[in-house]
């Protein structure tokens, strides 16, 4: 039995466009005004919001029951699903994310193959991580977990210190 783990990331646009019209000239001038990179969520360290760490990729972590937790207790983990051999790994990854986010309209899966294979001793459910990108939204109705956070690569290590070496290879900053 395999477990498909989904490493979800989000990168948000950090600029706004203002368009002003010149009276009588019929043309339009566009001024680029950079948005502040530090948001209220950054100041409050609110990891439940996507509107934070705008210059970094964010990864979705869930707290709750996991197929890969050896103790059966709630743990922090990426969205996951037990692989059914009747479907492709890619479809399994989409299904895993859909079970948490619901609508996948604002997501993009990067490639059809897992990004990494973890060799874990004495484990039946070996995770097969896929990467997916969230585009064009800032709020999801996340469900099927006790808690969730959107974290940067560095913050991710606070939740998985034992996987630091693996995370450095797998996760893009």
If you had to describe this structure to a student in words, what would you say it looks like?
The protein contains four helices and nine strands. It is an alpha+beta fold and 173 residues long. It has a single domain (2-170), classed as Nucleoside Triphosphate Pyrophosphohydrolase (Alpha-Beta Complex), CATH 3.90.79.10. The chain starts with a strand and ends with a helix. This is 39S ribosomal protein L46, mitochondrial. InterPro entries: Ribosomal_mL46. Keywords: Signal.
Known CATH architecture:
Alpha-Beta Complex
Mean model confidence by pLDDT? 71
Helix % is 10-25%
How would a textbook summarize the main sheet? 7 strands, mixed
Strand count:
9
Blueprint (SSEs and pairs):
Layout: E1 2-10, E2 15-21, E3 28-34, H1 40-44, E4 58-64, E5 75-77, E6 80-82, H2 89-101, E7 107-109, E8 126-134, E9 147-151, H3 153-159, H4 164-170
Parallel strand pairs: 1-8
Antiparallel strand pairs: 1-4, 1-6, 2-3, 4-5, 4-9, 7-8
Nutshell version of this structure?
By secondary structure, the chain is of the alpha+beta class. The chain has four helices and nine strands. Strands 1, 4, 5, 6, 7, 8 and 9 form a seven-stranded mixed β-sheet that branches.
